[in-house]
Fold this sequence. Notes:
By secondary structure, the protein is mainly beta.
Amino acid sequence: MRKITINILLLIVTLSCTCIYAQQEKGITGFENWLNNWTQFKANKVVYGEPTQILSGNIIKDTKLYKKDVYLLLGDVFVKDSTTLVIEPGTVIIGDFKTKGSLTISNGSTLIANGKNTDPIIFTSSRSVKKPGDWGGLFILGDAPINKNGGTAVLNFGLNPTDSRSISYGGDNPNSNSGILRYVRIEYAGKRTKDYGYFNALTLAGVGKDTTLDNLMISYCEGNSFSILGGNVTLDKLVSYRSSSNDYQINYGAQCTITNSLAVKSPYVSKAGASRCLNILNHDPDTTPDLSKTQTVVEAENLTLINISNDLENDIKIGLVNEAIFIGDAVTFKIDKSVISGFNPAVILGKKIEINNESLEKLVFTRNYFNSCNGNIFVKDRRSNDDLENWYGSRAFNNVYSKGTDTETFIDAKNVDSPDYRLRINRIIATNNE
């Protein structure tokens, strides 16, 4: 009897270990689909109710927003003067279409938007038929370092503050704490301005590493979904869904760690020529970098970057599909255990990057899964990229390549209500390029 009991216990332990490791290590990962409950992939089908409260002008005393009310952002709203804005889980904030509402958490103030998996906080459009660019977006400003001249900068989005301090960011505090943003959805943001282009859905400018940023979904944005301007941030479980511009725009010496995050592109809504999952820069393209200042560093792990096409080959042929990742000069970029599926090509390096040992030590691609891409890692405007293909295709980097369909590659990418973009277990069967 004792022997049988021991054998049963061993079997249970073996099965438990099998379950523990029965998840795909590449791309977004988790024993359960962490997109469940709090995300919304059919945002236009949800009715949030009419506003019961209005937010406008300056918020200069500590304020709490409650789930029982629906709030309307009327014009440009600023939380300033070291004020804390607390948003209760389940609260809905609507950006006004006519005044292109926006919310700015000024440098020194704090946002506590700590939603729940079953009760996320929602920022969305005021219109009954919602469209990308219906309202402005959310700006969070801190005093973490940026590499612009003088160490500080002012947002250029046509905002109308009562003083410039409300839109200034940057400083010398990498540990800056702007609060908590967790289980939050931002829908249909990215208004277009005549002089300043498109708003971003969420701008993190000079935000420091003591700020909590996880479980955030941005969908149907006309501008960039996430824009990180300098600062020092750790990002986990982010989702950018069907953005018209870049999903993750990173610049100005940002020190950024991003893990277990997702970008879903559609070639039918993306802007031609400049719509990437990751657009990583160190400085504005028309300027010369000051190499004495902090340079942009991005460390990415377990990302899934996917382009959803009805006919991928034809969409690439007619120019609807761009690269997934663009990397500018003076950038350090490392990506590990990630999935890049359905792009043209997977990665483009800026033409100012010299392909030598020094550059390649700063651009590291390891244990990634390149699927159905029209080329993998290229230098912009360069005729031949065989050296890069051979370099990153060697066994030392352990990257793999395949040509699977979305249905073959992902657990349930076609599910319009509750998609699952995790890789199918044991679907990676391609071998490394020699």
